[in-house]
């Protein structure tokens, strides 16, 4: 049985009239009759019987109709369902934000102003591969990236309260800060591990007096005058009331942020993933 035969049979069974079915199907009546007869020959049973000027389903025809109607309806709706799925994929972006979350959020807001139909979902999970674009701290020991990527370098500043003894300095040497109390992100964050490494290179282990998973809490605690801390130059924002940012003269303090587009998924040219990836990488390049 061919799909076209089944479609012709379905329409004819519903109308129970060859001429009307041929008109609906936009084919010649003899062609429809030939298709029905061919199907009956393949099955070895009659599907229709004369009924006055019309035709009626035989027992075999009724059975065939009942069996094919549901899968055929599913088949006929597949094109629109697939188109809907493609439209959703083109207009949805899944982000895994492991670094620079504030800046990425600002980029999402800016992008959505011009592209209101694009939706975003954001996770922060180093273990998952369920993302379209990932933003994280680059580590040369990491496994090979999943696809197209760019890496940008951001300077790490020292954030001090505006009323601290360090305020008037143009820069700091990290080894001079060993006795200071540090305000830091929680120890499981990669940025925290990077900053602890800066201190080790300067010859000391930082005296962490407050830590939090929330970078805003770190910012506010420094602004309150309770300690000092490391601060990404651009992606955490360059101005916060009560805080002054100082460059670290020695050792060199910076981080590399890697932005990756997942190559495990295929994106068409109209995909919002491609467009947002280009937008995001351009915005990162503009600030560093």
Structure description:
- With 288 residues, the protein is of the alpha/beta class.
- It has eight helices and 13 strands.
- It has helices spanning 3-15, 18-25, 29-43, 59-90, 101-114, 190-201, 215-223, 272-287, and strands at residues 48-51, 54-57, 92-97, 119-123, 133-137, 149-161, 172-173, 181-185, 207-212, 229-232, 243-246, 248-250, 254-261.
- Strands 3, 4, 5, 6, 10, 11 and 13 form a seven-stranded mixed β-sheet that branches. A two-stranded antiparallel ribbon has the order 1-2.
- The chain is rod-shaped and about 105 Å long.
Summarize the structure.
This protein has eight helices and 13 strands. By secondary structure, it is an alpha/beta fold. The strands form four sheets. Strands 3, 4, 5, 6, 10, 11 and 13 form a seven-stranded mixed β-sheet that branches.
Helix content: 40-55%
State the low-pLDDT regions, or none. Answer: none
| Inertia-based shape | rod-shaped
H/I helix tally: 8
Tell me which oligomeric state these chains represent: single chain
What is the distance, rounded to the nearest whole angstrom, between the alpha carbons of the first and last residues?
64 Å
Mean pLDDT: 87
Q: How is the main sheet built?
A: 7 strands, mixed
User: Which sequence of SSEs, written as H and E, runs from N to C?
Assistant: HHHEEHEHEEEEEHEHEEEEH
Structural class: alpha/beta
Number of strands: 13
Radius of gyration: 33 Å
């Amino acid at each position: 049985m061919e799909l076209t035969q089944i479609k012709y049979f379905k329409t004819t069974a519903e109308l129970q009239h060859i001429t009307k079915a041929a008109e609906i199907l936009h084919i010649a009546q003899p062609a429809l009759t030939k298709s029905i007869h061919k199907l009956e020959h393949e099955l070895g049973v009659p599907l229709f019987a004369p009924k006055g000027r019309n035709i009626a389903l035989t027992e075999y025809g009724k059975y065939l109709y009942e069996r094919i109607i549901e899968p055929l309806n599913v088949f006929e709706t597949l094109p629109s369902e697939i188109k809907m799925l493609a439209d959703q994929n083109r207009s949805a972006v899944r982000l895994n934000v492991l670094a620079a979350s504030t800046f990425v959020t600002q980029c999402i807001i800016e992008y959505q102003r011009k592209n209101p139909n694009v939706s975003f979902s954001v996770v922060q999970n180093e273990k998952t591969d369920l993302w379209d674009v990932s933003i994280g701290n680059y580590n040369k020991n990491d496994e090979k990236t999943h696809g197209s990527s760019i890496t940008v370098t951001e300077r790490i500043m020292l954030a001090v309260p505006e009323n601290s003894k360090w305020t008037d300095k143009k820069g700091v040497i990290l080894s001079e800060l060993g006795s200071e109390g540090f305000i830091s992100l929680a120890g499981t964050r990669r940025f925290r591990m990077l900053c602890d490494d800066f201190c080790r290179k300067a010859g000391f282990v930082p005296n962490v007096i407050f830590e939090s998973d929330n970078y805003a809490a770190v910012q506010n605690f420094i602004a309150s005058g309770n300690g000092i801390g490391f601060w990404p130059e651009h992606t955490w924002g360059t101005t916060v009331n009560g805080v002054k940012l100082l460059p670290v003269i020695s050792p060199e303090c910076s981080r590399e942020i890697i932005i990756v587009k997942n190559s495990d998924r295929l994106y068409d040219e109209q995909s919002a993933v491609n467009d947002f990836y280009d937008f995001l990488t351009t915005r990162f390049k503009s600030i560093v």
